[in-house]
Automatic annotation (TrEMBL):
<protein>
    <recommendedName>
        <fullName>Arginine and glutamate-rich protein 1</fullName>
    </recommendedName>
</protein>
<dbReference type="Pfam" id="PF15346">
    <property type="entry name" value="ARGLU"/>
</dbReference>
<dbReference type="InterPro" id="IPR033371">
    <property type="entry name" value="ARGLU1"/>
</dbReference>
<feature type="compositionally biased region" description="Basic and acidic residues">
    <location>
        <begin position="129"/>
        <end position="145"/>
    </location>
</feature>
<comment type="similarity">
    <text>Belongs to the ARGLU1 family.</text>
</comment>
<feature type="region of interest" description="Disordered">
    <location>
        <begin position="129"/>
        <end position="149"/>
    </location>
</feature>
């Protein structure tokens, strides 16, 4: 019985050793086969790795180019917006300047018109003064002429009635006094005219 127990235990140890050896050999064999397979497919694997690296690189470059294009478009849009804003400001300033120039021109035209009116009024006033001065001088000469006796003063008074038209004329000699005796009264009928 003891022998039997020893034998069973011995058998278990041997089986375990065989199992471990088998596992070790299988592992070595698998590693060798993998290594051989890898060696065989080394070029293919390297090509695949390179292909995947190139693909990733191409995707990154594409994304980078797309990002750069988006930034460029955004910059162009911002620049266009700035130019449009500047154009609007410039047009607004030009409109204000044009409006100011128009107001200045209107004010200058109005001022010139007012100045012309003032000049015309001054001319009329000057003419009126000249006429008044001439009339004053004429009256003064006439008065001097009458005062010095160089003419006769003659006045006529016209009376209108329904039946007759009478003209009463006074004639005075300047050297005579102003009494009625020194004046001659003439009554002329309508038939005398």
């Amino acid at each position: 019985m003891a022998f039997n127990c020893y034998s069973s235990r011995q058998q278990e140890i041997e089986e375990k050793l065989i199992e471990e050896e088998t596992a070790r050999r299988v592992e070595e064999l698998v590693a060798k086969r993998v290594e051989e397979e890898l060696e065989k497919r080394k070029d293919e694997i390297e090509r695949e790795v390179l292909r995947r690296v190139e693909e990733a690189k191409r995707i990154m470059e594409k994304q980078l180019l797309e990002e750069l294009e988006r930034q460029r478009q955004a910059e162009l849009a911002a620049q266009k917006a700035r130019e449009e804003e500047e154009k609007e400001k410039r047009e607004e300033l030009e409109r204000i300047l044009e409006e100011n120039n128009r107001k200045i021109a209107d004010a200058q035209a109005k001022l010139a018109e007012e100045q012309l009116k003032i000049v015309e009024e001054q001319r009329k006033i000057h003419e009126e003064r000249m006429k008044l001065e001439q009339e004053r001088q004429r009256q003064q000469k006439e008065e001097q002429k009458n005062y010095t006796g160089q003419g006769k003063v003659k006045a006529e008074i016209i009376f209108l009635t329904k039946k007759h038209r009478m003209i009463l004329a006074f004639e005075r000699c300047p050297n005579q006094t102003k009494t009625m005796d020194n004046n001659s009264i003439l009554v002329k009928s309508l038939s005398d005219y």
